[in-house]
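your task:
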Amino acid sequence: MAYPKEIMDRAFKVLEDRRSQARNDYQYRQMVIHEKVPAVEELRRELTGTSAAIARTILSGVDVEEKMNRLRDTNLYMQQRKRELLRDAGLPEDYDEMHFTCPDCNDTGYADGKMCHCMKEILADLMLERLSHTAHTDNITFESFSLNYYPAEPLPGVNYSARDVMRRALEECRNYARTFTPSSRSMFFQGPTGLGKTHLSLAIASEVIRKGYDVLYTPAQALLETLERERFRWGEENYSLDFVLDCDLLILDDLGAEFSTNFSVSAIYNIINSRLVEGKPTIISSNLTVKEIESRYSPRVLSRIMGGYYTIPFRGNDIRMLKR
């Protein structure tokens, strides 16, 4: 799974800072050892000499096993003696060792040729930070989504309520986040304003990011403004959609709130169509009705959404107004 270059660069900077801190801490501890237990420094030099002797013994090929056993015993004795000296001085037994934040990869981000768990955690934190910055909010979860705001009375002409509809929407979104893979289906959140489409989109984004995937959440208006600036800077033929098309999950929020132009309609179609062709999941939320989407973006955009997306309806009253 790919991560944006900017996120990877920041993650490596975090690791670099951790290694630098570990080196600084180690140098400070060496100063303390020099003042309180100088005998440890002598033992360290002897241990270094033992390591060199082991290498010479292996290369010589003469009485290797016997010499190696003696050197090993000497090495173990000196290590034990070093620990005793540190303990007697009131210091931890490992005070003479380099202490990395992650002992599994020594703060390099990779262990045994694979990305370390610490690197994955750093990337997830940075992705969540980006999500929070883009959405201008944080800590949006499934748990904080309350069904109490939705009427329990049956909707006109049917035997189910808005709360029933939203309970199903919540369950669908939970399951989507729990089982997400880069080949998951695309979803279309459709319903009037203030019914929780953005909330559930962000909850999905948070969960999927924590699973280690690259999620791009963006309001449609902000995305199109970014693409318009790129087109103005580089020209019609050179502006790039790569950062939109390459992510594992694209969440395009509030489609229809942007100012409509020939360019915006074309860009929306290209994004929707390209990700469908490549089998990459997208979540689109919109206040527009089916007829409004067709009128605003063209029948072929509507066809891609209706034919390639799983629609989740949102029903109820404007929660923002209820909260006020």
Remarks:
- The chain has a mean pLDDT of 87.
